[in-house]
Amino acid sequence: MSGPIEQGAGRRAVVLLSGGLDSATTLAATVRSGWVCHALSFDYGQRHGVELQAAQRLAEKLGAREHRVLRLDLSVFGGSALTDPSIAVPETPAEGIPVTYVPARNTVFLSMALAWAETLGARDIFIGANAVDYSGYPDCRPDYLAAFEAMANLATAAGVAGERIRIRAPLVDLSKAAIVRLALECGVDPSATVSCYQADEQGSACGVCDSCRLRARGFVEAGVPDSTRYR
Amino acid sequence: MSGPIEQGAGRRAVVLLSGGLDSATTLAATVRSGWVCHALSFDYGQRHGVELQAAQRLAEKLGAREHRVLRLDLSVFGGSALTDPSIAVPETPAEGIPVTYVPARNTVFLSMALAWAETLGARDIFIGANAVDYSGYPDCRPDYLAAFEAMANLATAAGVAGERIRIRAPLVDLSKAAIVRLALECGVDPSATVSCYQADEQGSACGVCDSCRLRARGFVEAGVPDSTRYR
């Protein structure tokens, strides 16, 4: 599931693209490996809507074949600081699963990616999940991703026909520093990506949320100047 | 996963409700077993939108605590006779997976149910999937449902905390005749449900699509008059 990306040789893939550094790096590395990439983003009632504008620009710049934004109002379920304006985004790290966790988010996103993959005739879905320098969300871990893949192969016409569906998370085992290096190697401009949980309307980062802290530490550890725009 | 429904004893459950006979029966049987039911329907670009009106009425009549309809435009992905107006609904049964299959539909629906369950603090999700008298969709089979459940327990904060998430499909092993009998036993009025893939605006059934055929045979085999409104 991780490690170097298998050559695509012109095969189609669906790539989840949030507009953050990890998914942008995943898209760039996947395009570079010869996959024809269909990028998928979600307008899910997130606070940081500016990341969708970043996703749109990144899809074009990094060579996605097409980019679709699916509107999906997860905020009607409430329950996360990322979609519920009444819950504050914390500025200090917490124990356990943080309030920025969006219920079942990667499951919902991967399910929609699976639906699109099936209609495209694609069997490969790329996601920028990372389980090293991450916020502790359960749905970023390798055993979760493997379980989703097993389910997907029982869920779909392609899977039933023996055409193996694969959930590929090429960044899952990488440190944030390694992701920063890979991003630069693949031509991703980090300043064009938005990772902050509470970016402002210009996409400038707060510098204090969990996502900002992890990202900033990645630049330091990679020994690379941090081009992120902070406010 | 199947068999008699465990007593809910006031526990919350999310119940997928399409407006068809199977999901209405699932809801009625779940309410009867003492669960507090939160019914969830999807407006997913389906041809047979009249089923959503039926779902609304059924949720109220059968005693759901609340009913939410989530808009989700799966038709942007195309690929099914149920969402793509350019693909005809077949009037004779076909071999293999039919064109009425909506890509990854149950995976998408269960994922959204999982998101809602997490915010509600519910651990049980009920679905009217059936793998006996069914159309051959891969995502109705018990091994698929078990794989989804395994994934859900790795995906969620509740699962990680050891609070087991369960996907319950009480109709999965029942014949359509047994479902018809259970529906009547639980107070479901079959004429208030819409199973037809191409029901008209009044909810009247075509009588010839796969779903109508399976349902009509259920009434015959149950020895019960078919109260379905045909056009």
Short structural description:
Helix content of chain A is 35%, strand content 11%. In chain A, strand 1, helix 1 and strand 2 form a beta-alpha-beta unit.
Regarding CATH, which class of chain A?
Alpha Beta
Instruction: Write the CATH fold name of chain A.
Output: Rossmann fold
Query: Could you tell me the radius of gyration of chain A in angstroms?
Result: 17 Å
Strand-residue proportion of chain A:
5-15%
Biggest pleated-sheet summary of chain A: 5 strands, parallel
Assembly type of the shown chains? homodimer
- Overall strand count of chain A: 5
Helix content of chain A: 25-40%
Described by the principal axes of the CA atoms, the overall outline of chain A is: globular
Structure in words:
The structure is a homodimer of 231-residue chains. Chain A is an alpha/beta fold and 231 residues long. Chain A has a single domain (12-222), classed as HUPs (Rossmann fold, 3-Layer(aba) Sandwich), CATH 3.40.50. Chain A is built from seven helices and five strands. Chain A has helices at 21-32, 50-61, 105-120, 142-155, 157-160, 176-185, 210-222, and strands at 12-16, 36-43, 66-71, 124-126, 166-168. Chain A has a five-stranded parallel beta sheet with strand order 3-2-1-4-5, with helices on both faces. In chain A, helix 1 (21-32) crosses helix 6 (176-185). The radius of gyration of chain A is 17 Å and the shape is globular. The termini of chain A are far apart. The mean pLDDT of chain A is 88. Chains A and B meet through strand 3, helix 3, helix 4 and helix 5 of A and strand 3, helix 3, helix 4 and helix 5 of B.
